[in-house]
Design a protein that fits this description.
Order of helices and strands: HHEEEEHEE
Radius of gyration: 28 Å
Number of strands: 6
Distance between the termini: 41 Å
Helix content: 10-25%
Strand order of the largest sheet: 1-3-4-6-5
Mean pLDDT: 78
Number of helices: 3
Low-confidence stretches: 1-8, 21-29
Shape: elongated
Largest sheet: 5 strands, mixed, barrel
Strand content: 35-45%
């Protein structure tokens, strides 16, 4: 929101220093021709932003935005890379995140495609080895699978966007 302020005039009692002007309350105008150009620009900008946003953002999209994580921890194993039957590369490694209360939380980190190829090159160059501290930025993904006992379990994995050395 843009608010108009009055112009500042030098105060003779303050030896020429300019005193901040008091803010003027924004007024509602019923006639658009009487509307100040800054107010009109702000109103148009707000309308444009409202038009650009999708009318109803899906719950899945909102949930995906909220699930982005940034983790700092140590590699539990040197990353491994495998090829799927469809020909895509998948990189995987466990990450140990040490919490403030002294506990350790383990996360499975996955990389796909070009990111997995980069992960493989970095692992081969001994840049990413077991015990190295890294920062992982990615998205939480949960999938269900059948355990050997037959029960359905949920695996929580992080699909990495970036893996940085620290």
């Amino acid at each position: 929101m843009i608010q108009r302020v009055a112009t500042a005039e030098p105060d003779p009692a303050s030896n020429g220093h300019v005193q901040p002007a008091p803010k003027v309350q924004e007024t509602e105008t019923s006639n658009p021709q009487d509307e100040h150009s800054l107010d009109r620009a702000a109103r148009i900008r707000e309308q444009d932003q409202a038009d650009k946003e999708p009318a109803a953002k899906t719950e899945e999209a909102k949930e995906a935005d909220a699930q982005r994580v940034k983790l700092v921890g140590r590699l539990g194993r040197t990353p491994t890379v495998r090829m799927t039957s469809s020909g895509k590369l998948v990189g995987k490694f466990p990450l140990a995140v040490h919490l403030e209360n002294g506990e350790t939380e383990w996360h499975d980190i996955l990389s796909f495609g070009d990111r997995a190829a980069t992960l493989q090159k970095r692992a081969e160059a001994d840049e990413l080895v077991k015990g190295r501290e890294v920062e992982v930025v990615g998205y939480v993904h949960e999938r269900e699978y059948k355990a050997r006992s037959g029960e359905t379990k949920v695996a929580r994995e992080i699909n990495s966007v970036a893996v940085k050395r620290r």
